[in-house]
Amino acid sequence: MTSTARIPSAPVTGVFGVLVKRFSKKLLGEVPEPVGVYFHNRPVLKTFLAVSSKAQKWSACDENLKSFAHMAVAAQVGCSWCLDFGYFHAHNEGLDERKASQVPVWRTSDVFTPLERDVMEYAEAMTETPPTVTDDLFSRLLRQLGEAGMVELTTQVALANLYTRSNVAMGIESQGFSSACAFELAHRDVASR
């Protein structure tokens, strides 16, 4: 796949680079383009990796819900890399791949539960500028997820905004990870944004 990033990937070298390459290739089969771009500033890359690693250990909110929320943000922001990787991640983690493939068109898809729809609506409302989260939506989710789950979901959506907006600004696009998945990833109609 040809790079579209506005900053070309740096050579992933040194002891840290060897570790990153080994881990990436074991997990994904290749080094993700964002790693090469962020390798220009290793402290930033290390922070991103550390935050991501710690967030993966959170367990107060269902993994499918967090995955759908992240992908809803990616679809709204237009981060093809995060959508592609998010779907691949759902596939690899044994999450609901059929539903994950439909996140970009969740409003018109009939595969989601009311809770899942609320989660994706919340993710989109948080992503709006300014945010458009309503008391009603927040209360519905709080009743179903509890305080710890709601804090986790909210922080997951905030992190999704960090990752998606950074990738879009730097021109990082899909690497084709989702080609390993059973279903084709649905595409949002540009006019529906």
List the helices and strands and how they pair.
Blueprint: H1 14-28, H2 33-38, H3 42-55, H4 63-77, H5 80-92, H6 97-100, H7 114-127, H8 135-169
Protein name: Transposase
Pfam families: CMD
Domain Carboxymuconolactone decarboxylase-like: 44-125
Cα radius of gyration in angstroms: 17 Å
- The shape is globular
Number of separate domains: 2
The CATH class of the largest domain = Mainly Alpha
Q: Which residues sit in consecutive blocks of at least 5 with pLDDT less than 50? A: none
Number of strands: 0
The quaternary structure here is single chain
Counting DSSP H or I runs of 4 or more residues, the number of helices is 8
Strand residue content? under 5%
Written as H for each helix and E for each strand, in order along the chain, the element string is: HHHHHHHH
Q: Would you identify the CATH H-level superfamily of the largest domain?
A: AhpD-like
Residue share in helix: 55-70%
Report the biggest beta sheet as strand number plus sense, adding barrel if it closes: none
Straight-line N-to-C gap: 27 Å
Helix/strand-derived class? mainly alpha
- Per the CATH scheme, the topology name of the largest domain is AhpD-like
Domain Carboxymuconolactone decarboxylase-like: 44-125
Protein name: Transposase
GO molecular function, one term: peroxiredoxin activity
Organism: uncultured Nocardioidaceae bacterium
Your description of this structure?
The protein has 193 residues and is mainly α. It folds into 2 domains: 11-57; 60-192, Up-down Bundle (AhpD-like), CATH 1.20.1290. Helix content is 60%, strand content 0%. It is built from 8 helices and no strands. The chain has helices at 14-28, 33-38, 42-55, 63-77, 80-92, 97-100, 114-127, 135-169. Helix 4 (63-77) packs across helix 7 (114-127). The protein is globular, with a radius of gyration of 17 Å. It starts with 13 loop residues before the first helix and ends in a 24-residue tail after the last helix. The mean pLDDT is 92.
